[in-house]
Each structure stands twice: as C-alpha cells, then as structure tokens.
Amino acid sequence: MHQHALHPIAKAILVASLTAALAVGCGGGGDDPAAPTAPIATVDQVRTVTDLTRNWRFVLDDSLTDDQALGANTSNWSSVNLPHTWNAGDAATTAQSTPSTPEYLRSVGWYQLDFDAGPQTSGTRWLQFDAASITADVWLNGVKLGQHRGAFTAFRFDVTKLLKPGRNVLVVKTDNRRATRDGEANAIAPLSGDFNMSGGLYRGVSLVSTPNKAHIALGDLGGPGIYARTASVSGTSAVVNVATKLENALAAAGSYTVTASLLDAEGKTVKRSVSSAVALRPGENITVSQDLDLADVRLWQGLADPYLHKLVIELRDGAGTSIDKVVRDFGVREMRFDPNSGFFLNGRSVPLHGVNMHQDMLGKAWATSHEDIDRSFELIKEVGANTLRMAHYPHSDYAVAQADKLGLVVMAELPYVNSSAVGGRTVDPETTGFAENAREQLRELIRQKYNNASVGIWSVGNEVQGGDDAQNNVRAMFKSLHDTAKAEDPGRITTLANQINRSGDVVRPDAITLTGVTDSFSVNRYFQWYYGQSETQLGDNLDQIHAASPAQPIGVTEYGAGSGLSHHTDNVRGGRVCSSDTSGATRICYQPEGYANYVHEKAYAQMVQRPYLMGTWIWNMFDFGSGNRHEGDIGQTNTKGIVTFGRDVKKDVFFFYKANWSQAPVTYIAERRHTDRVYKTAQVKVYSNAASVALRVNGVEVARKAAAECP
C-alpha cells in the first residue's frame, strides 16, 4: 500500500501590499470638517439598472455589410437570450478529432434587440456590456456608438441623448475571426493560445440610469468610478483610502457632498463615515480622495475568515438629496510577499497553493451562467485551494466576487499570450497598435477589479517570449505593461509567466532573461510531461532561478499532466506517454491517469520543500476546450484538469490535493478506474489525511500504514 499524506504545504504565495494611492488625476476637495453631515449611509440603490439579456435576435453571417445588417428584416433571425455564443457546440466539445476536423467556427455574429427604455429622465443613461468577443461594434437607433476591442472586459456607452421614449433598437456586431495581418481590428491580445476564443455576447448587457447628470463616473474604462484600497493595517486598526471620480454633465455649476462609509457585512451598522464638500463646474470631471480611519475592524483573512464589509459611496446635491450611490463589497486586508518566505496576509504567513481556471464549460463554452460559475467554485473550495489564477484573461466580475467571498487570493491576468504580432517576431508591436491596445486592456482589467479583496497580483502576460531579448522586443513590451500596471495600481505586485526554454532536456541559460522586469517572476514548468525525466529537475530549475534573482519573488504558475479516465497502466514508468498530438494524426494519444498522479506527486513534493516560492498553481482545475488538441481518450480538449470539462468527474489527483490542502477528512483509493489489470498483484495507493489507514480485503486487514511512514 502506498499512502500519501503530505502536510499542507508552506506553499508559495501571492501578494500585494496595498499601500499606495490610485494614480489618477486629482481635483475637487479632500476631507472637509465643515462639510454638511450626511444622513446615515444605507445600501439602498439610487441608480436604476435594467437587464437587457432577453429576447435578442441573432444571425451568424460574415458576409453582411453594416448597412445591410442595420436595415435587415430580423424576423428570420434566431431568438436567443444572453449569455450567448455560437461556439457552445464546437468550442466546448470532447468529440474526437482528426487531421480533417475543422476549427471551431470563427465568424461574425449580429445581434438585435428591440427594447423600451421607459420615460426620459433628467439624469444619464448608459449601455453596459459585460463582455463581447473579440470585437464589438454597437449601434443605437441607427447611430454608431463605437467599437470595443478586447474579448474579456466590460465597456459602456453614454446613450443619454440617443435613447427615445418607447421603442429603441440596439444592434451589435461581434467578430471572433482570427486576425490575418497586423493592424486589423482583431489583431489584438490574445493573438493565439492553447484555448478557444468563443464569439458573441457571452456575458450580460444592461441599461444603467442615474437620476442626475452629476454622478459618480461611468465613463471610466468600464470601472465603477470608486477605487478603494487598504492603505495600512496595524493589528485590528486600518486606514482605507477611497478615490471617487465624479462627472458633471450639467450646464451649471453646483455644490455637492461626497460621503464614503464602511458598513458591516449586512449593510446595517456604519463603522466609519467621512464626508467631503466639493464644487463642480459645468462639464468638469474630478477625483475626490478620502480616508476612513478604522478601529477594531474585522479583516479579510482569506479562507480563514473572508469577511466583506459594505463600502458605500454617496453623492448628494446642495439640498442634501441623494443623486448617486455605489455600493461594493470590500475586504480590509494587507498583502505582502517576501522573496525568501513567500506570502503574508495581514502580517501572517499563508503559503499559497492553488489552481488555474479557464472560463469555459462543456457544452456551453464561454456562455456560462452564475450557477455554472458557482459549481466551479464549489469544487475549488472542496479541493482546499487558497489561491486561483484566472487564466489567461480577465474573468467576469461575478467570478471574482465569488473568490472574494471564499477567501481565495487571485492572480488576474492580461490576455497577452504567446505572441505580439501576426507577422512574426520581427514586427514591433508599438508600430501596429497592438501594444497600446494591450495597455488599454490592462487598464480596463485593473480599474474593473481594483476593489476586489481577493485580487493580489496583476499578471501582464503568459509564455510570450521565445527565449532571448532579440525576439520581438518582448522585454520592452513587458516593461511597458509593468509600468502601466504600476501607474494604475502601485500597491499590487506584477508578474509574468515564463515558459521553459530548452534544448532537449537541458534548460538553456536564456530561460530566465525576463527576470527583473516585473515585481515577481512566474514560471510554467512541465518536467516529466513535455520534457525531462528526472524527479528532481523541477526543484533544481526553481533553485537556479531563485539563485539568479534572490531579491525577486518566484512562483510556479503552471505545472501538471494530462490524463484520460479510461487510460491506465500497471507501471507508470514503464511505457511511452503521449503529452499531446495537435495534428490529430495519432489514433490514440495515451495518457494513463496513474502517470498523471505520479507527475503531480513528484512535482508537489519538490515545491513543498521550497518555502521561498510565492505561490504554486496547478494547470488546470478543469479540462478545457482547445480545438487543436487530440489527446487522452477525448478530443479537442486539454486534459490536464483535475476535474473533467463538465465538472462531473473528479480525477484521482483531485483527492491527492484535497488530502493535502483540505481540513475535511479524506481517504481515497487511487487508480480505482483501472479494473482490467495485467499484473496479478496490485499495488494499492491511498490518498489520505488520516493519522493512519488500514486496507481490508473482504473484511480481512492486509496492511496498515501511519502518516508518519509516508513520503
């Protein structure tokens, strides 16, 4: 019997010490003792948000011109509700592929919605799109509002002057076609990647209305207009700084009061409230900075106690009438990291160990519901992860909010993956518009997730470099993205994920040329899977990087192995394992589940012994769609998940990590799906966190082992 009961590891961690102000232009007033005393804050809403996810008309047609689509009779278009993608069937399937299997459909989808906007008001009206892939062109009542380039972040259009009483017609053109040359609208990050790019309106759409034309900013790159950070923590005392952006679309000047209040989780008891008097000139946009000094505050403590206060920012006019309000969950916490000791949350060492996750699901692709997302987080919680890398792009606000509530530390990532130019590594991304769009996507990501307690690190890219600085100005590009992130948010750290560079099984010296560009350095390492057979190579490589950059925190952003649920072996080291076959030419790409278990066991053991790691993330929590892959016992799927694509089967290795990470009792017999064995004698492997485990066959005890006897 082989039992594993590794102690919950001193795993690496993620981090971000929030000790700097939001880098935006300032104006207006600061704290003003003479400001009028505001009424006690409540979480009651002032804005009206109208859901626009029902009764859309849709057609998939890349031959339609804009004018044809705008004038089309849509009675023969399909009726759909949001979230929607045309790739639910072909980009989220496990069907076997062959060399002749076509790529999932990358085309142009047209959406039309007839809706009643209600009566005209004296305030402002904004159309909000939570995401549209890859680009979106938007028209309202025949007038083009603009184009958004980026598949993952929210965006808004001011439609105050264009909405009509009664019927309005909204038309959206979404395009997920692959870019063919630099400079095209779709030639933006990500240009490629080992994941599918679903097309469509795959999140929500809504109409946001404010009762007054003076309001908290809605035109700030999809951000909430309020940006709160924990400036300091000392014991149970803390200072929270809130920067509130105001927009005045009125033709007259006015006097206003901004009140920032921190309430308990139920939104009933005010812990602290600060008011500031401000004057706004016609058309003026300003930022108001306020500090909330908190005593005896309950901190956000990750998994141990993910307590979230209600942060209420309210704008009142000179008569004291509430004219706008933003309410957000907010966790008071301080994160920091150490290149030798890992991650610290509120001064307490918390080794970070967790998973990566893509946003797709079997049969749905990117068009998932809140219930689907909840199911994913239930499984992440069950396995005992305390950190989540949201790969390789911004995930939904709802998903990040679930991480806040569970107490996960999140790495949020820019979709800068693999390459910077369609035309190859000799093309300078600064000359094609690619670099500026990447910076814009990064600004959108940071502003939209700025207030989330779970977010601890901004990742500015994944596996982009080819190995040396001469290729595609990669170092300069990463430096530009790092600088952009620090200008937006000086308090959180940055990182980039570096792929292995190798000649055979030998790590090349240029594998670590990108260290020092970002605050921390992360590596994707697949020893004993794509390369290398030694059980110690991963640890040796990590030590090499740590020695070369002793002042920089190091993390392992990816490691793992694929597995097929029907693939098994009696000897995990006794045969060839097929890591992937992207051509689909191999009849069977053999990936025994037992071999994946072995790879994880050996990799994990090495990382646990290295407390300098800032965090480790399994690749991947779930199998996910990757149309060019043919591997394991399924097709068009990356099989490295520890849970299947449909969230329905937990693989063996899920229980290996649950036994190491979770406080719940675990005793699990591994390789139980291997029923047709060749060897007459079976070696029984058990994953458990019990003090001891006994194996009985037909009621007769044949072996017993204590945790202390296990490796």
Structural category: alpha+beta
Q: Major β-sheet, in short?
A: 8 strands, parallel, barrel
Domain tally: 3
Distance between the termini: 12 Å
What does the overall shape look like?
A: globular
Q: Architecture of the largest domain in CATH?
A: Alpha-Beta Barrel
| Order of strands, widest sheet | 23-24-25-26-27-30-31-32
Radius of gyration over C-alpha positions, nearest whole angstrom = 26 Å
In oligomeric terms, what are we looking at?
single chain
Which fold name corresponds to the CATH topology of the largest domain? TIM Barrel
Helix count, per DSSP? 9
What is the class of the largest domain in the CATH system?
Alpha Beta
Q: How much beta, percentage-wise?
A: 25-35%
Residue windows where pLDDT falls under 50 for at least 5 positions: 1-36, 467-471, 502-507
Q: Count the E strands.
A: 38
Helix content, binned percent: 10-25%
Mean pLDDT across residues: 91
Instruction: Write the CATH homologous superfamily of the largest domain.
Output: Glycosidases
GO molecular function: hydrolase activity, hydrolyzing O-glycosyl compounds
Pfam family, one: Glyco_hydro_2_N
Family: Belongs to the glycosyl hydrolase 2 family.
Protein name: Beta-galactosidase
Describe the structure.
This protein has nine helices and 38 strands. It is α+β, with helices and mostly antiparallel strands and 711 residues long. It folds into three domains: 2-14 and 335-665, TIM Barrel (Alpha-Beta Barrel); 49-204, Sandwich (Jelly Rolls); 214-330, Immunoglobulin-like. The strands form ten sheets. An eight-stranded parallel β-barrel has the order 23-24-25-26-27-30-31-32, surrounded by four helices. A six-stranded antiparallel β-sheet has the order 4-3-5-10-7-8. A four-stranded antiparallel β-sheet has the order 2-11-6-9, with no helix packed on it. β18 and β19 form a beta hairpin. α5 runs parallel beside α6. The longest helix is centred in the middle third of the chain and has 16 residues, at 434-449. The protein is globular, with a radius of gyration of 26 Å. It starts with a strand and ends in a 5-residue tail after the last strand. Residues 231-333 form the Glycoside hydrolase family 2 immunoglobulin-like beta-sandwich domain. It comes from Pseudorhodoferax soli. One of its GO terms (molecular function) is hydrolase activity, hydrolyzing O-glycosyl compounds.
